[in-house]
Amino acid sequence: MTAPEPTESTESTEPAAPDVLDRARTLIATNGLYKGPFVDRDQHRADGRPWRACALCPAGAIALVCGLDPWDWVHLGPPDPAQRAAATALLLLLEHLQRRGQIPVVETHPLRLVGEWTDAPQRTATDVLIELRLAAEYGREQPVPDPDDLERPAPPQSDPTEE
């Protein structure tokens, strides 16, 4: 799946962040939660299943819902509508988790913070599914964060070919 072409007004082509989180939750509920960067490469390698059919972390699920490659979406240039939708959904999840005291408010890239929260040994798939649902509900009641308003450190580097 490819990202939509940029248009004059990205507002009409960007999916709403709460809807992105709901669809990401559905992907994780269907495929399973992956603790690690983005998507379970072992499932992909073992039987050639597409990324969309593998276990996913929240960031990987958000990327796929927005039509982005789970490995590249954070490293690409100026955001197109799909990248902006993914960033907005990720920031909404981060804001929700920080508001609930589950993630500290620190100067770290949102992907790292959400990843560390997801990968915590005590975190279950049920925990992640509940928080994605609650974050989507929160986003329907509150203004969603604007990725353009934030200054963030560089994203964590990940190589999909690493073993």
UniProtKB/TrEMBL annotation:
Pfam families from the UniProt entry: DUF6197
Give the region (Disordered) as residue ranges. 140-163
Q: Which InterPro entries match?
A: DUF6197
Indicate, by first and last residue, each region the UniProt record lists as having compositional bias (Pro residues). Answer: 153-163
This one is known as Uncharacterized protein
Look up and give the organism this protein is from.
Bailinhaonella thermotolerans
